[in-house]
Amino acid sequence: MPRVGSEEPAAEWAIRRTTSLADVGILLGVPGIGQRVPAWRRVSDRNFAAAVYGSVLAAAVVASLDVGDVGAVVMTASLGGTMAVFYLSHVWSEAISDRMHDPRPYSWARLRAVALWHWPMLPAATGPLLSLALADLGVWSRATAVTVALAISVVQLVGWGIAVGRRTFESWPAALLTGLADGLLGVALVVLKSLVH
Question: Which of 141, 145, 119 is nearest to 132 (CA)?
């Protein structure tokens, strides 16, 4: 397999580059584990991609369920179930990929590291879920719950975009532009929902 210093394209190398997991071993309470993971997946870094994906997925599920005659309870269960299934699918597929690229015996520590890496996907759905749960409890209508859930998703996308832009470009104008671009993803879902509804 090509490594650093080879002639492979930069994009391919970026996917394959690796780093020591000594710091991950300490975090997981398993010092000395010798696995290697892509540098851009160090546990010390936040997985903004999973958070953005979780926000987009939550908004998409809420928007798609609001088209038909679906009750708030069903929407809440559907959103929670969809997020859980997608999270587990990501963890499982990542674990298989990790195993293919590093054939050493797999361990719970490695699986836990993968699960932690994708974890931000689930908290991203907390706001929309709470909004729908309040409709379940009769605090507000299903229509209000959907509006609030979509608004939360859009705000989260803007926030993730700003955070990524700030870390990437280290300037507020670029960070705000990235946040705006991210937020437009959520707005696009809301517009599509309105057109279909």
Answer: 145
Name the strand (E) or helix (H) holding 110.
Answer: helix 108-118
For residue range 92-109, list pLDDT tens digits in order.
Answer: 998 888 888 887 787 888
Sequence-ordered alpha helix ranges (H) in 119-171? 126-136, 142-169
Question: Token digits for 33?
Answer: 């584990």
Cβ within 8 Å of residue 116, ≥6 positions away: 43
37: which strand partners? 19
Cβ neighbours, 10 Å, residue 49: 16
Residue 128 neighbours by CB under 8 Å, 6+ apart: 58, 59, 62, 79, 149, 150, 152, 153
Structure tokens at 9: 């394209």
Q: Which neighbouring-strand residues pair with 36?
A: 20
Model pTM? 0.71
Is residue 147 classed exposed, middle or buried when 0-12, 13-18 and 19+ CB atoms within 10 A define those classes?
Answer: middle
Query: Which residues are 72's β-sheet partners?
Result: none
In this structure, how many other beta carbons lie within 10 angstroms of the beta carbon of residue 61? Answer: 23
Cα gap 159→136, rounded to integer Å? 28
